[in-house]
User: What shape does this take?
Amino acid sequence: MAGSVPLSTNRPSTARQRKTNESSAVKWILIGAAVLVLLWLIVLPLIVVLTEALKQGWLVYIEAISDPDALSALKLTLLVAVITVPLNTIFGVAAAWAITKFKFRGKQWLVTLIDLPFAVSPVIGGLIYVLVYGANGWFGPWLQEHDLKIIFALPGIILATLFVTFPFVARELIPLMEDQGQQEEEAAVMLGARGFKIFWKVTLPNIKWGLLYGIILCNARAMGEFGAVSVVSGHIRGETNTLPLHVEILYNEYQFSASFAVASLLLLLALVTLLFKSWFTRKSNH
Assistant: This one.
């Protein structure tokens, strides 16, 4: 009929409004759930660590972190990180470069081996080195004859830490380099560049932020590793105890304030690592 108005003219806008309201509600529910989980699993334990560390005052706190065994554990933790992170960086860059830029037999096996520490328990990783280099292991008698000590010494701790941390740099770089492709490297070859010159001038500038991100993750795991290091260290005070192991010993001895004080050192290292990670993430996105 002329002049009549359809009854359904407002239905599409009403449906869109209802959909928008529902989407907004779901968004805030998900955000609230995520915040609650973070508060419960991360923020609350951190508050407990700091509260318990300072429960008996600053003098007890300073005495705990300045204890010779605590300082020795801190030095050993930093030393292991200083050794393992550069080695894993070299391996990760070489492995990612080979996997993404070349075709060769066994490439898939190499990728699988890189992912192996993610699938194997760190305790099993440490046990493997005990079975190989321990007193009753494959090379144990030979090592004893030549007065070489790996298990319950610094070399064993470094090997165990290398095992659990070597995927981080490679796994950060492989998808990044695959996404970038090989066009720039091929152009460099056509212009006469070869070998490492291509890497330094073309590949490295394109992956530098991803590489730094992988190094930070590797360093964080190296400083906080417990399971594998616990198996190979022997828990010798002042010699083979890293910070996580020292925290465990203090806690088992009912020195709760001291254990939480030393744990706060790990927390401080973690926060510094997190700040670097956030900065590199912003740089990478930019």
Q: What stands out?
A: The mean pLDDT is 84. The longest helix spans residues 11-53. The two ends are 60 Å apart (CA to CA).
